[in-house]
Structures are given as structure tokens and as C-alpha cells.
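Session log. Operator J.P. requested a structure for one protein chain; no other inputs attached. Running the standard single-chain path with C-alpha cell output.
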Amino acid sequence: MSGTVRETALFGHVLEVKRTIRVSAFGAKIDVEDCVTNLSPKDEEIMQIYHCNFGYPMVCEDAHLTLPEARRTIPRTDFARTGLGRELGFDPPAAGEEERVFFHEIDGGKGGFWAKLDNPAIGSSMLLSWSGETLPVLAQWRCMAAGDYVLGLEPTNCYIMGRAKERENGTLKVLGAFETVRNKIGIEFNEL
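Structure written below.
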């Protein structure tokens, strides 16, 4: 299925998203393709993130996240820094546990951009793939709080720290006048 959404502002931006979603007839795979076009005669700042959230039973103490070895991991906060080295595993739910967010800069190389979540306890595996040339950062939101126990794997073109911070860091992306960017996301579930 497909559709088009346009976001506009008087005397401002005109952005259009053409989205196509494909679901396989056999198996368990979803592909999303977005074509984002700047329909205005001036460059526009653009921040994009694709929230792919997974909870129980896919995420539990038995689950394990695998990411390409060729990556740089940056914690968003001091509390997240305390979880470096453990960001690929999962703790039991804890009351009031603060979230941890990590930004992964992945070297696409031959393997492309992907993340794999395995849960042997339920015999399931999930493979997330995305277009790393347009979404170069994987934000990993890891919340082990009881009641809010979830893993967010979020391909993005920025570090989701807000436009001002992205500008300051030189990481805010700009979509040129009448330019189009194409993003692809795939989610596939398999048995282990």
C-alpha cells in the first residue's frame, strides 16, 4: 500500500513524503520505503527517525541484540555511559529504572546496515535493516523499567538531541531545494 503526506507552512517549508509499505504474502517481513521531497525553492533542515519498538516477550532477560562489530557507540547521558559494554543484553525489569540511549555509528561495509534481536526463550529472531547512506545513525533506546520494558531500535539521520544541538554539532541534515531523499527500512521475523 502507498500514500502521500504533505507538510507545509505559509511562507515556510513544503515537504512531501511518499510512503510505500510492502508486507510479504509468505513469511513475516515488512518493508517501508519513503521518498521525502523538499518542494520549496529553498533548502530545509530535516531530522528523520524511524521508531521500531520491541517489548515483551521479544525483549526479556534471555534476548540478545547483535550489531555489526564495525561501529562506534556513543552514550547520550552519563547514566547511559554506565551501561556501556552491556548495551547488547537485557536486564530484568527494575522499578524506576532510567532509560539508556546509545547512538551507534555503523560502518556499513559489505554487510550493510542492520541490527538483529534474538530471543532463544521463544525461538524468535528479528532482523532490522535500513538504508545507512541516508540514515547513518542507529539510536538504541533501552528502557528496563518495570511496566515500560522496551527496546527501541531507531534508524535516524541525526542524534535526536534537537535542532539547536544538531546545528551546534554540525550534524543537522539539510534537504536541498526540490531534492528527494529515499529511506528504506525492513523488519523480518524468523524462527531460531
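Operator note: The chain is about 5% helix and 50% strand.
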